[in-house]
Design goal:
Structural class: alpha+beta
Strand content: 25-35%
Strand order of the largest sheet: 2-1-3
Oligomer: single chain
Shape: rod-shaped
Radius of gyration: 19 Å
Number of strands: 3
Helix content: 25-40%
Number of helices: 3
């Protein structure tokens, strides 16, 4: 640990690397609702980083009747440093 890192640690400064190594923010559960060939509903749940979700594309898929619907539930757990940034 060099002097700069020690000073930052003593002052409570947290540096977030912007190269993606810190993570993509909180995860989210995305549920996609489709219809099977026999008319039954099928739900598939995926866990992905919230920042990777393209809600406009999901809305377009609903409008074109490619899917019946979807839901996005954002995880409450996230790093406090990312919370301060609004992510």
């Amino acid at each position: 640990m060099d002097d700069q890192e020690r000073i930052e640690q003593e002052q409570g400064i947290v540096r977030i690397p912007l190269d993606g190594s810190y993570g993509a923010g909180p995860d989210a559960e995305v549920t996609i609702v489709t219809k099977t060939e026999d008319g039954k509903r099928r739900e598939a749940v995926y866990t992905i980083p919230y920042l990777c979700i393209d809600e406009k594309k999901l809305q377009n898929m609903c409008a074109m009747n490619l899917i019946l619907g979807y839901s996005v539930i954002k995880s409450a757990s996230r790093a406090p440093e990312l919370k301060e940034l609004g992510l």
